[in-house]
Amino acid sequence: MSAWLRQHRQALGSALRRLGWLNAVVIGVALSLPAGGYTLLEGLREVGGRLALDTQVSVFLRPEAKRVDADALGKLLRADARIARVRFVPRDEALKELATVQGMPEVIAALGRNPLPDAFVITSDPGSLEALAADLDKLPQVGYVQADALWARRLAALAAIGSLAVLLLSTLLGVGLVAVTFNTIRLQILTQRAEIEVSNLIGATDAFIRRPFYYLGLLQGLLGGAVALAIVALGTWLLNREVSALAHSYGSAFQIAFPAPGDAFAVVGFAGLLGTLGAHLSVSRHLRDIDASTRY
Amino acid sequence: MVSFSAVAKRYPGGQEALKQVSFTLEAGELAFLTGRSGAGKSTLLKLIPAIERPTSGSVIVNGQNVGALKRAAVPYLRRNIGLLFQDQKLLYDRNVFDNVMLPLAFSGQAPREAARRVRAALDKVGLLARERANPIQLSGGEQQRLAIARAVVNRPSLLIADEPTANLDAESAARILDIFVAFHQVGVTVLLATHDLALVERHGKRRLHLESGRIE
Known about the structure:
By secondary structure, chain A is α+β, with helices and mostly antiparallel strands.
């Protein structure tokens, strides 16, 4: 084995011996906030994306509208070139569908009459969706037009704000990680002050003296990143138990996905990089102090 | 081996530790550097491994102008010089063996060869049986011998010691001196600073006397 490799192994060993779990946990907890926020946003984006592809528009008639009004509207809709498909949902059928949801029969029985209006579910191309929804809303028989895609767009706008918040949080906590590493390395340098002084006096190069501290910063960052991922994994698991129950009641199998391997790798890698940066700043600052005082 | 010509050292604040010091130490020579406390002995010794730089004049060690040496080159200069500090600078967080191992870690020695060299150095100073002890458990003389073992483990061609016998009883001091003489006999150049004139006279070696910053 070459001397170079042996020195790196020594430095790594020395860093491993000095690696503290507590610091890694501090870094991990701090990083889990942006990492968790990102994971939730990705989940939200997925829902939004699914809705945005859904080009269905639900058109509800006014409650007082008669069947003839519905037939007239149906003809009008089928004549519209922008509309690809029209499905009529009579109010009685809607009520039957609603009654299959748990707890609803009691509610319906309490109402004593069918509160639901007749409705049309129409499919159009995504481009004309917004204009179509606006036009339909102006028709006299129409009570309410619901286009999920429009709602999805609003959700996307909200998600963009969320992304910005996560970015700000990442930046702040990234600076925090650098500061934590800076301080850990500073304390470590103080602890090993005698060894550093002697090493410097009897022929250790700067690189040799700095190497264990760089490794310590890197390892602490990597470990902190791993702790953050573990917290996110635990968090998504706990949330998913509730989320899947909720999603199931909507007939969906939606789950918040754990970050993809690429994203998870990026979290750990980024934490390692910031740890190394913190070590670099600390080492440059504090070893210079020791060197100046080495003149015994 | 070591050559000073017209070396002056002024510390910030105007204190002049050395004025116009010139001397040459030949390879394989053993010399004592004497003078009262504050005469500039420590300053002179510190100029050799570039711990201090001269204000003017030149310090040549092994053909290199130490005063003009780049920072990155200094460690390699120091590896060829065995340094013994007034306060020994032993590390009390590790045992005797690991203290001597320290300089070998820099040069990336293979572990088996390094361990062999450490034991050889400890054997030369008579501490082989104490390799697992902590330096704090050693007597003053033993600590000084440990410092010598660390200074010579890299087999330097030049050995510099600042007051190696200070605070030691006569017997321990004599034993330390014998070790330096033994290194001198195998060809190592040795420069010892001391204020113990009786010791110097007993050995009858070359003497460089510093008096208020000048070699007499």
